[in-house]
Specification:
Distance between the termini: 37 Å
CATH class of the largest domain: Alpha Beta
Number of strands: 13
Number of domains: 2
Radius of gyration: 20 Å
CATH architecture of the largest domain: Alpha-Beta Complex
Oligomer: single chain
Bound molecules: guanosine-5'-monophosphate, manganese (II) ion
CATH topology of the largest domain: inorganic pyrophosphatase (n-terminal core)
Structural class: alpha/beta
CATH superfamily of the largest domain: inorganic pyrophosphatase (n-terminal core)
Largest sheet: 7 strands, parallel
Strand order of the largest sheet: 1-7-6-5-2-3-4
């Protein structure tokens, strides 16, 4: 993979650009995609954001969200856009398996693929150029850096700032995780100097729950949270039958896995949710416990050192037995 500046020349003339991000997109995935979308539009390009599956409900207000195409429900249109595109931007993921059904079309595409991402263990051979930096707080911060690098800082408007603020806010746990360095605060200071209304974004993302979502989280915490291994490990396992009655919307389980870390003794929190027979695992840890390697080695996953995900096609019972046997080995 070449460095990102190798695409600057291609961006000097108007291009049709396909922007995509990981499945079950979160605020960093959507915020970085739309932040880049608004920037490329200002530069005279024709960008389109295509996501592998459903948008989380709490991002419906984001500028440009109405233009986003969902591959699961509009695959023909999306394939048409991909065919016409001259460049493909891959944001907030680094393995093509992360785009689910979009993997084959993207892998077979002849156009240059450009990576902007902050996860561990990239697959650099499939990208023509890009930037991969696990020390970055968020892909949104990396889009900001990219715009600065192109010399277009002055083009950053309210739409771009709102999109990039949102993903940085969520990926840093509201500016508390260690990757929240001076560059992040300087970026926010710049957005504020341009008039960004940040409180509204916190409300839109964090205070926009349905009553149903709140009751589901209450149920998961009260009835389903298991705290074991001398209080150091929390596991919440939710089967398809348990989840169904709550009629959850996309994004309704977001944040649940972080909650048990609020217990002083808990060092690792795991959330298992079953959908269409497949179990999705989410891992969070405190300090020097590497859940990314664990998830990659045992659950076909990956992510960041302290926040990772994976999956299992076995039953909930078998998955829990495997998880409990293995995970205690990484908790001192
Ligand atoms: P979450 O638990 O919020 O779904 O994911 C935590 C982090 O791990 C995110 O940065 C996400 O992109 C990454 N991640 C989640 N699931 C997977 C997976 O199956 N494979 C890989 N490589 N990364 C994942
Ligand atoms: Mn991210």
């Amino acid at each position: 993979m070449l460095s990102i500046d190798h695409i600057f020349q291609a961006l000097e003339s108007p291009k049709k650009i396909f922007i995509t991000t990981h499945q079950k997109p979160d605020a960093d995935a959507i915020g970085s995609s739309l932040g880049l979308y608004h920037y490329l539009k200002l530069k005279g390009h024709e960008p389109t954001v295509v996501i592998p599956n459903e948008l989380p409900d709490f991002l419906h207000w984001m500028p440009g969200i109405e233009t986003v195409l969902n591959f699961e429900s509009e695959s023909k249109t999306c394939l048409g856009v991909l065919k016409e595109a001259e460049l493909i931007f891959c944001l907030d993921f680094n393995h093509l398996s992360r785009v689910k059904q979009l993997e084959t079309p993207i892998r077979n595409a002849v156009q240059p693929r450009i990576l902007i991402d902050h996860h561990l263990q990239p697959e650099p051979e499939v990208f023509y150029a890009g930037t991969s930096d696990p020390d970055k707080s968020s892909t949104c911060e990396m889009i900001y850096d990219f715009i600065i690098q192109t010399g277009d800082k002055e083009l950053i408007n309210d739409d771009i700032a709102r999109c990039l603020y949102t993903g940085t806010m969520t990926d840093t746990g509201s500016f508390r995780f260690p990757a929240t360095n001076a560059n992040v605060h300087e970026m926010i200071a710049f957005f504020k100097s341009r008039g960004l209304q940040h409180s509204r974004i916190h409300e839109d993302v964090y205070d926009s729950w349905t009553e149903n979502r709140m009751r589901f989280i209450g149920y998961a915490m009260y009835q389903k949270m298991e705290v074991v291994h001398q209080g150091k490990l929390s596991i919440i396992a939710l089967t398809e039958e348990e989840i169904k009655p709550f009629n959850l919307l996309a994004g309704d389980t977001e944040g649940l896995v972080n909650m048990p870390l609020g217990i002083q003794s808990v060092k690792v929190s795991v959330l298992l949710t079953q959908k269409n027979g497949i179990i999705k695992l989410s891992f969070r840890s405190k300090g020097q416990i590497d859940v990314s390697t664990f998830s990659r080695q045992h659950f076909n996953g990956g992510g960041h050192f302290n926040a990772a995900g994976g999956s299992s096609e076995e039953s909930m019972e078998a998955t829990l037995t495997k998880l409990k046997t293995l995970i205690t080995n990484i908790i001192p």
